[in-house]
């Protein structure tokens, strides 16, 4: 069984069908990619998978369970974490607090815990701190823990998004254009980190426009165009697919 | 329990109690508007509910003050739930609109309820809010707020303020957290109201109008939204200055208006907004002992621009 499965997934915004009967499988332990021209519906597919949108029709299955239309917080609790194309950090909070918030799903303390600070709560807080630190270390941000997220460079902010996602201890990590705005060297480091995350046993599903990045990293690639899936296969297969070439030539190379 | 009472001249003591009550009120609103970013325009209404509920407990049931205080907090918290539950689940400024309307409704209900004296007011409430009692409650509320701020719950509230969609994607049930937070904030307002009732001894509905809500909001904005020391400072400044300078209430509103404009221009984040007071203290100690602090310098600038 695929870890994540999109089943005839469709969403319509007014007259626009942003995602149109998309069938797609993300296998456990693999790095899968979703590519396509601007406006193809990639981010919308991620928003459907993480509960930000409810599908007009079709389903999202996670470990065989139908999660379509479930609340984002619930889906995160099940083990899906994501990053955002248009970076959505908690800007005025520190790097460490951003990642600590990522630990929310895996911790419990409530209002009374906050006020009483019983030893169990203190212990949980220490665990959160430790997990947050490990997530920062993974992404090479541990020295910046005290900075405000807003003060980080663009590339660092993208890494912090991944660190925050990792802090929620997901099984499936969705990355929406993780390399956007990064320079060549930063991209190289990012590839290493993503491979490392895969080695930790996570499944990765990513959207990215940088073809070299996608083809070098992914096991499987699916292609969307105008909301429709036009190809699906290994990077080699997709690269020579006539429909894919047409879709890209028609849109990006003028 | 009479440690502080009578230490100050009576007039100053009375101002100090008022300041303490407004610190409590402002801290409750800071949780709602400063920490979580949800605009409430009816904080005085929750204060009035706490004040009347506690007064009734004292007058009709003759119970000890602690029960009156709790009754005030709980009554206000229940109304916090009633208003917060339907509105905080929606995105947009529905809370602001609902609390604004709620404030007016509460005021007119109190005007027309014989059991609480209507427009004549409710008199004969025993004097219980001594300086000592008020001081103890101020310390408890500050202590609670500091603990909440640095907890999993508090971080979730900050996350909601910063970006509610990202917060939701990281496991935070944002509607539930906002409702819980609002109940806590209004509970604290109810405690403040109970203290007020047992200081002023006569309650009149018109003391808890829209302008009172704005006054409390001003304290939070002046000190710095989300900053506990800032909110305390804001409450002290805005409560004591008009008393000391003996402004008439008309001029008071003029002062608030001018103050807000000046704040927007020069310190939009409030007096202490964006300033980490504990860090600042540590840094001052360091600078005295001669360590360098160059890389932290730029953070302090943030609050000012
Ligand atoms: N909430 C919404 N309401 C209306 N239209 C929307 C909404 N969200 C997305 N769309 C539209 O759906 C289409 C797909 O958008 P989406 O953001 O998924 O594209 P994308 O493949 O991620 O593109 P890019 O590569 O530019 O990020 C676009 O035409 C977009 O304008
Ligand atoms: Mg996109």
Give an overview in words.
The complex is a heterodimer of chains A (254) and B (305). In chain A, strand 9 and strand 10 form a beta hairpin. The mean pLDDT of chain A is 94. In chain A, 48% of the residues are buried. Chain A has helices spanning 42-49, 72-78, 95-102, 111-116, 119-138, 154-167, 184-199, 211-217, 235-239, 242-251; strands at residues 4-13, 16-26, 31-35, 57-62, 65-66, 80-82, 172-176, 203-207, 220-225, 228-233. Chain A has 254 residues and is α/β, with parallel strands linked by helices. Chain B has 305 residues and is an all-alpha fold. Chain B has 2 domains: 10-270, ABC transporter involved in vitamin B12 uptake, BtuC (Orthogonal Bundle), CATH 1.10.3470; 275-305, no CATH class. Chain B has helices at 10-35, 43-61, 65-87, 94-111, 131-149, 152-162, 164-169, 174-200, 210-223, 228-245, 249-266, 277-289, 294-302. In chain B, 49% of the residues are buried. Chain A binds chain B through residues 50-52, 71-73, 76-77, 81-82, 84, 88-93, 97, 100-111, 113-115, 117, 121, 124-125, 128, 146-148, 151, 164, 168, and chain B through 144, 147-148, 151-156, 158-159, 162-163, 165-174, 180, 184, 274, 296, 298-299, 302. The complex binds adenosine-5'-triphosphate and magnesium ion. Adenosine-5'-triphosphate binds next to strand 2 and helix 1 of chain A.
Pattern of helices and strands of chain B: HHHHHHHHHHHHH
CATH topology name of the largest domain in chain B? ABC transporter involved in vitamin B12 uptake, BtuC
Briefly, what CATH class of the largest domain in chain A?
Alpha Beta
Q: How would a crystallographer describe the biggest sheet of chain B?
A: none
Largest sheet data of chain A: 6 strands, mixed
Number of strands of chain A: 10
Based on secondary structure, the structural category of chain B is: mainly alpha
Class computed from helices, strands and strand pairing of chain A: alpha/beta
The portion of residues assigned to helices of chain A is: 25-40%
CATH level 1 class label of the largest domain in chain B: Mainly Alpha
**Ligands, deduplicated:** adenosine-5'-triphosphate, magnesium ion
Rounded to an integer, what's the Rg of chain B over CA atoms?
A: 20 Å
Rounded mean pLDDT score of chain B: 87
């Amino acid at each position: 069984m695929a870890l994540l499965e999109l089943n005839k997934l469709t969403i319509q915004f007014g007259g626009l069908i942003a995602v149109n009967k998309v069938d797609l499988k993300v296998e456990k332990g693999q790095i899968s990619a979703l590519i396509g021209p601007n406006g193809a519906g990639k981010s919308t597919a991620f928003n459907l998978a993480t509960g930000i949108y409810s599908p007009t029709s079709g389903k999202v299955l996670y470990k065989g369970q139908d999660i379509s239309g479930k609340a984002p917080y619930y889906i995160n609790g099940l083990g899906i974490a994501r990053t955002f194309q248009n970076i959505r950090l908690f800007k005025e909070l520190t790097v460490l607090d951003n990642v600590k918030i990522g630990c929310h799903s895996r911790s419990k303390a409530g209002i009374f815990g906050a006020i009483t600070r019983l030893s169990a709560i203190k212990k949980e807080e220490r665990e959160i701190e430790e997990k947050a630190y490990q997530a920062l270390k993974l992404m090479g941000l541990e020295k910046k823990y005290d900075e405000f997220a807003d003060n980080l460079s663009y590339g660092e902010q993208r890494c912090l998004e991944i660190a925050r996602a990792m802090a929620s201890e997901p099984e499936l990590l969705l990355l929406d254009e993780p390399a956007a705005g990064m320079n060549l060297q930063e991209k190289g480091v990012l590839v290493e980190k993503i491979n490392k995350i895969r080695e930790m046993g996570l499944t990765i599903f990513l959207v990215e426009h940088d073809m070299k990045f996608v083809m070098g990293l992914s096991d499987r690639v699916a292609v969307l165009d105008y909301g429709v899936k036009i190809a699906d296969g290994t990077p080699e297969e997709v690269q020579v697919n006539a429909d894919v070439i047409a879709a890209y030539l028609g849109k990006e190379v003028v | 329990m009479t440690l502080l009472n009578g230490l100050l001249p009576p007039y100053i003591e009375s101002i100090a109690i008022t300041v303490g009550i407004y610190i409590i009120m402002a801290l409750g609103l800071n949780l709602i508007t400063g920490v979580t970013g949800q605009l409430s325009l009816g904080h005085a209404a929750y204060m009035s509910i706490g004040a009347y509920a506690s007064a009734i407990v004292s007058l009709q049931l003759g119970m000890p003050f602690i029960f009156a205080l709790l009754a005030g907090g709980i009554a206000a918290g229940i109304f916090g739930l009633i208003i917060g539950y339907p509105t905080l689940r929606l995105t947009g400024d529905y809370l602001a609109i609902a609390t604004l309307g709620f404030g007016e409704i509460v005021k007119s209900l109190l005007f027309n309820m014989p059991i609480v004296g209507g427009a004549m007011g409710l008199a004969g409430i025993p004097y219980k809010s001594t300086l000592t009692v008020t001081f103890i409650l101020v310390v408890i509320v500050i202590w609670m707020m500091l603990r909440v701020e640095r907890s999993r719950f508090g971080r979730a509230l900050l996350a909601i303020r910063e970006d509610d969609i990202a917060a939701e994607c990281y496991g935070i049930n944002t509607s539930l957290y906002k409702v819980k937070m609002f109940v806590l904030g209004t509970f604290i307002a109810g405690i403040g109201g109970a203290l007020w009732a047992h200081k002023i001894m006569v309650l009149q509905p018109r003391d808890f109008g829209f302008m009172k809500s704005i006054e409390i909001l001003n304290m939070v904005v002046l000190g710095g939204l989300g900053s506990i020391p800032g909110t305390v400072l804001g409450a002290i400044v805005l409560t004591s200055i008009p008393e000391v300078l003996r402004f008439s209430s008309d001029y008071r509103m003029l002062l608030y208006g001018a103050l807000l404009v000046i704040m927007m221009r020069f310190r939009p984040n409030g007096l202490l907004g964006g300033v980490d007071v504990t860090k600042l203290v540590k840094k001052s100690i360091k600078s005295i002992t001669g360590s360098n602090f160059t890389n932290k310098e730029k953070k302090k600038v943030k609050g000012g621009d």
